[in-house]
Amino acid sequence: MVRPPVLSCSHSPMNQTAEKPVLVSVQNLHKNYGDLAAVRGLSFDIFQGEVFGLLGPNGAGKTTTIEIIEGLRQPDGGRVRVCGLDPAQESMSLKERIGAQLQSTVLPDKMRVDEALRLFAGFYRRSASVEALLERFGLKEKRHTFFEKLSGGQKQRLALALALVNEPEMVLLDEPTVGLDPQLRRDIYALIERFRSEGRTVLLTTHYIEEAERLCDRVAIMDRGQLVALGTPRELITRSGQGTRLELRLAKPVGLERLKVIDGVIDCHEAEGAYFLRAQPPAVTIAALVRFLEADDNALVDLHIARPSLEDVFVEMTGRRMEA
Amino acid sequence: MAAVRIALLTIRLVMRTKVALFFTFVFPLVFLFAYAGLIAHGNPEIVAYMFGPVVTLNIMGSGFFGLGIQSVMQRERGSLRRYRLAPLGPRTILLSNLLANYLLQLPTLGLLLFCAVAIFHMPMKIGWVTLLVLVTVGTFAFAGFGLTIASVANTMQEAQVYNNIAWFTLLFLSGVTFPLPMLPRTIQRLAMFFPSTYLVSSFQSIAAQGDPLLRHWPEMLVLVTSGFFGLLFAMKLFRWEKEERISTRAKLWSCVFVLPFLVMGVWMNTRANPTAAWSRSYNAMDQGSSAGANAKAAKDNSIEDFEGVQTSEELTNRWRVTADSGAANHSVVELSLVTPGAEGTRRAMRFAGRLAAGPKNTPGKVAARYEVKIPVNSRGLEGIKFETRGDSRVYQVAFRPPNVAQLGSSGLPVPLPAISFVPGGTWQNVRVPIAWLANPTEHGLAEGPWILEISVTGPSGEFALDIDEIRFY
Predict the structure, then answer these.
(1) Which residues of A touch B (CB under 8 A)?
(2) Whole-Å CA distances, A9 to A15, A228, A237, B354
(3) Which chain A positions have a beta carbon within 8 Å of B9's beta carbon?
């Protein structure tokens, strides 16, 4: 199988984290489940204090990768170091230093919120104040509630609180907002942003584009077990060559060939009376478009400008949409 | 320390779950009441004999369905995964499960014991320490069993199948349900390979015969060894995730768990003779229970059973002996206690001595008399009976008022007739029909006391008569 090219921007001057020490190093990681190659030759570094995202569709290998980093799974090949430790060999020491939240956290039905926090806090040499965690994650009023009685969002908040129960250097979050409503999702975003402001290193997996764009300092886009792009969201979008999307309606029809030659236009097509342009840089194209319409005695009836997203990067790199 | 934390929380969770509470505390009581009520009919001796099987049943249940199924359920539900993120190993999880299972066993045992003693008057023939050792060893062994099954079962359904096979086999073929001596010889031979047999038979021989625990060290050793094997396999084959599957090879390796039972079974079948010990326990229970049952049945109508008499002096205070030979009383008579008594009771009275002829060669006569009160409600009584054995002399028994003049105009013959009997060397039952007992007030005879007189007369020489279990019938 031909490996797709990797769009890497890790040495770009825009990278603010490159000067910081590497906390996680993944080199040529491989993991198979029977005949299925879940991870194939994955390599990336995570720097201290950054929020790093593993972005990709379901089945891309994100969860396998994060679980290898957590020490829950053994890799079949490659080298992984987390906080200077080998997760496969030194998992007990590593677990003292990291906090993790699983894609789905299950606790005994009749376990109360504060009991769960106290129990898990007791497993570590260093632990956070349970009262502070309850306060911080908005669980104070639910402290005596059984796990089975918690809503999805409350369970997720408890899972995040459990991830911080040992005051970890690094937090690993596997799809932290999956299945949550928009409000709860925003709450979780706020919590992750707070992790960042506290200087914690965060590794999160997601298949939500806006989540990765909003939260992550750097993103590794994965598909079918391989890395397809790595860098800050802005770098990836800028360098992808996808251009900004312009959707315009004109007073009089105009030939596509004439639009294609306007400065900065990369691509152009027409559908249902609207013209769709991809332009780079967009400001140059818009200025040239206005001049073109004046010269042609035409007028702009409607204009929508859409910035390219990581979804476009993914489409460019894989030829498929993220949900596919 | 982490294992203790998890174990204590697990116990708390059990206390909050109605189903778990039912199976932990109520269900064992259901078995106790079923065994003690339906099988033992409330007979304390049989309850004591059946207490071992009830405790064993409870231990088996907690091992298979408590610990074993619980372990698989934790894995299937995914709750183990959260523990896996903490710095905990399989050993901590297994020890916590083991500890919680054991700690939950103790209050259940206390509850069973309380009900058995308070409700069924079970005699406490087994010491506290011995009981605790048996329960600890048994719990550990069956925890090993449950953990081994949980280790090799890939799914909950698979675990249920293995558990049911083991459960029903042990339930019916190892003395837990049917007493071992009642099982056919072939099944008895098979039972020698089962851990529940070792536990049940140890319980029963200690409870029924008062055997020391140390006499059962081979059984205890095998149970402890199998517990360790089970724990070892559980650690070796521990899986955090339900997706992880165990290979057929590993499953086969786990068969090593049954090795101690195989060794023990072969040894018992070839070298030891446990069936004799099983029968001894059973017979001891049987005898005790008949005595108990008889005592219970006769409780209201008993005149004298000698069980409460401790010394010969006490006996002579209750009974009056007379030597009525015409001469200067050369006959000698003595009352003493003999052990055991009739029908497996502890004591009987011996009426023995030497008869001496009087002047003109009149035969001597000696008698023992006992004051009897007519029961307040004697309706339905037909007479007096007692157990006796002796030397083939002719003895007589009579039931009369202290003073014949008391009979007055009762219409009864004076003197009242006596019944003769000739006791042999084994216990026999002698009955004295007394028709007016059915309605003593009609004859103005309800006022007591009356005298039961047992006497012997005849040629000079030694005599000896044992008497026991004197009661109205």
Answers:
(1) 70, 72, 91-93, 95-96, 100, 102, 104-111, 115, 119-120, 122-124, 146, 162
(2) 8, 12, 11, 124
(3) 111, 115, 119
In the predicted structure, residue A321 carries a pLDDT above the cut 80: no
Residues of A in contact with B85 (CB under 8 A): 70, 72, 95, 100, 102
pLDDT value of residue B313: 81
pLDDT tens for A180-211 read: 778 888 888 988 898 888 888 999 998 888 88
- Which residues in chain B have their CB less than 8 angstroms from residue A100's CB? 85
User: Looking at residues B80-93, what average pLDDT do you find?
Assistant: 91
For the stretch B173-214, pLDDT in tens is 888 888 888 888 888 888 888 888 889 888 888 877 778 888
Q: What is the pLDDT of residue B402?
A: 61
**Neighbouring C-beta atoms of residue B347, cutoff 10 Å:** 19
Chain B residues with CB under 8 Å of A91 CB are: 87
pLDDT at A9: 44
A43-67 confidence digits (pLDDT tens): 999 999 999 999 888 888 999 999 9
B128-152 and B69-77 helices, crossing angle to 10°:
40
Residues A75 and A94: their CA atoms lie apart, in Å, by 16
pTM: 0.69
Q: Which segments of B258-311 does DSSP mark as H helices, in order? A: 259-270, 274-298
Scanning A98-172, the segments in alpha helix (DSSP H) are 113-121, 130-136, 152-163
The DSSP H or E segment spanning A219 is strand A218-223
Asked if residue A185 lies in contact with residue A175, where contact means CB atoms within 8 angstroms, the answer is no
Query: What is the nearest CA distance from A125 to chain B, expressed in angstroms?
Result: 10
Residue A122 in tokens: 């007791």
Hey, what domains does chain B have and what are their CATH numbers? Answer: 2-296 (no CATH), 303-472 (2.60.120.260)
Write the ipTM. Answer: 0.80
**Cβ atoms < 10 Å from Cβ of B100:** 24
According to the model, what pLDDT value does residue B324 have? 63
Nearest to B84 by CA among A13, A208, A101: A101
Q: Flag if A95 and B78 touch (Cβ within 8 Å).
A: no
Answer yes or no: is pLDDT of A130 > 70. Answer: yes
Confidence grade of residue A324 (pLDDT, cut at 50, 70, 90): very low
CA distances for A90 relative to A86, A95, A164, angstroms: 5, 9, 20
pLDDT given at position B376: 65
What's the burial of B158, exposed, middle or buried (CB within 10 Å: 0-12/13-18/19+)? middle
Residue B293 in this model has a pLDDT that exceeds 60: no
Domains and CATH numbers, chain A: 7-238 (3.40.50.300), 243-307 (3.30.70.980)
pLDDT the model gives residue B184: 84
Distant-in-sequence, close-in-space partners of B229: CB < 8 Å, separation ≥ 6: B144, B148, B256, B257, B259, B260
Who among B6, B12, B85 is closest to A100 (CB)?
B85
β-pairing verdict for A300-306 and A244-250: antiparallel
pLDDT score at A1 = 43
Instruction: Give how far Cα B349 sits from Cα of B336, B392, B422, B453, Å.
Output: 6, 17, 17, 14
The CA distance from B178 to the nearest CA of chain A, in Å, is 39
Residue of B10, B73, B74, B85 to mutate when probing chain A, most A C-beta within 10 A: B85
* Structure confidence at residue A283 (pLDDT): 86
Closest CA to B454 of B365, B379, B380: B365
CB–CB of A293/A250 below 8 Å?
A: yes
